[in-house]
Amino acid sequence: MNKIKITDTSLRDGHQSLWATRMTTNDMIPVLEKMDNVGYHSLEVWGGATFDVCIRYLNEDPWERLRIIRENVKKTKLQMLLRGQSLVGYSHYPDDLVYRFIDKSAENGIDVFRVFDALNDIRNLETCMKAVKKTDRHAQACVVYTVSPVHTMQHFVDTALQLKDMGADSICIKDMAGLLSPYVSYELVKALKEQVGLPVQLHTHYIGGLAVVSCIKAAEAGVDIIDTASVPMAFGSSQPPVETIVRALQGSPLDTGLNLHDLFDIANHFEQLRKHKGFERGVTRISDMKVFEHQVPGGMISNLVAQLEEQKASDRLDEVLGEIPRVRKDLGYPPLVTPTSQIIGIQAVLNILMGERYKLCPGEVKDYIRGLYGKPPAPIDPNVKEKIIGDEPVIQGRPADLLPPVWEKARQEMQGISEVEEDILTYALFPQVALKFFEYRQERSNEDVPQMLAVEEVIKEAEIKEEIINKPLPRIRKKAVNMGDEEMNLNELRELILLLDQTNISDLEVQKDDFRISLRKNPAGDNQTSLAQAVSPLQQPAARPDRVNDKLVEVLSPMVGTFYAAPSPDAPPFVRVGEQVKKGQTLCIVEAMKLMNEIKSEYDGTITEIAVENAEPVEFDQVLFIIEKD
């Protein structure tokens, strides 16, 4: 038996699963050298949702993050998660973009590309595998694990054999929902080792509580590498804790050789970060145990909760979780991993919120049914298909064969904004979001404010903070020194701030006679987010004037999201004031839950008013258009 190697996922899937991917680059910098010295097989640091979140929520350049990590991690391989033909996005991209993205990712520091297709449709991995092999980096191909009538042991082995023929250097069992039971884990690893003959890595999630035992059984069956996370970012919907796996295998022929003291030193950094930002620990709740019924992966559950809160419908989570298996069956049992997890998840949300199944379907759901994501594992329910796309044809070939090259077009559209290839790639992947980020970055540049602190400054700041944290917490004196009893001593104020920073207390109010001070800690976010919230209060739906009658009707937003008047930045708007529209015609797009939802007219008529500006946020039930019916 060989010693088990460990990949750490804390800097990618760990915080994606538990912290909504909100760890900033500055949060990572102080611990990178320690992680590099532990002896991990690799560090998963990029890909998945990190790219999107960097530009959409953190106002960070994901390419700059990768370069900084590479500069500070000199010995350990860096790994990323690549969604096959979808790269780090949510829909398929043309081959020319795939080649350029992978080439630039390798150039900026990625050593191991873990590639997967949500449907296990290997046609969607052909270009990715060729592109990775062209860079001379390690191509790790995934077998996406799930449970359904069509996902048998032979299906997984056959998929792995085809991936080997495509040039895979290793195979990863990607169990994104934590469904892999210990004995199936043993059987699957053993079958892959014996019949495929490539190194095997196991990626699983703790959510249902099976992960640690499944990892141990996989190790006994001959698995080569196991994914884990540092304990503050483990458990719950994340990976199993590295500390537990290391201790469980210690002294056996499978001993990882990692030092627990070093691992706890790293864990201390992440634990202080967790407390400081107000993130919760990974825990397994009763609703999480229901993963064996609804099969919703960890990252998807945290996203569903956030999405329902955004739609002011968090009390309907159980209904959505109950709807997901029904939608999944209707659509041919796709595994619930990005992007199909978003497709199934948002359709389940809309089915519940609309009160009618498939009344509103995002463009991505329609594209999935048209075959533009690949071939579903099982046939789609014909009645559902007819309701959503009618008698439209379904493509039979590789979806990307239908996509024209996009690189040159994106480069031309970026003229005057940036000629940097990484920026052009970012724009080609997320046009609307990228333009907002570039605008923000330019404004910051004009203010002569660095986007991120220098590495040395971040490390120094972290050392000072750690020194403060390790000091005994001083007691707050009841009586001020050299000041009147009715005033607060400055030292007492410092002690209160320290108390707030070192504990889970988020609000603190102290009153002494007529003097009162209130302190509040910023929860689960960074300073940029707080500032934005402070200066940009949430837009409320405008009060509706009395402007409707038998002829005039309002078109309302069915959800909270962002209003887009056109299908892309360079395209004309769907409609203009004064134009005639037909029933079923697309009026606009409301982007919600990372998917584009086409809003269609329910009447023949004329647009008399467009009540929202392009790219503006909209609330549920907010007026978007006024139509005069024919």
Automatic annotation (TrEMBL):
Q: Name one GO cellular component term.
A: acetyl-CoA carboxylase complex
Annotated pathway: Lipid metabolism; fatty acid biosynthesis
- Please give one Gene Ontology molecular function term for this protein: pyruvate carboxylase activity
What UniProt keywords apply to this chain's record, in alphabetical order? Biotin, Fatty acid biosynthesis, Fatty acid metabolism, Lipid biosynthesis, Lipid metabolism
Q: What is this protein called?
A: Aldolase-type TIM barrel
Question: Do you know which Pfam families this protein is assigned to?
Answer: Biotin_lipoyl (PF00364), HMGL-like (PF00682), PYC_OADA (PF02436)
Q: Which domain of life is it from?
A: Bacteria
Q: Which organism is it from?
A: Syntrophomonas zehnderi OL-4
Any GO BP annotation:
fatty acid biosynthetic process
The reply to whether Lipid metabolism figures as a keyword in the UniProt entry is yes
- Domain Lipoyl-binding per the UniProt entry, residue ranges: 552-628
For the Pyruvate carboxyltransferase domain, which residue ranges apply? 4-264
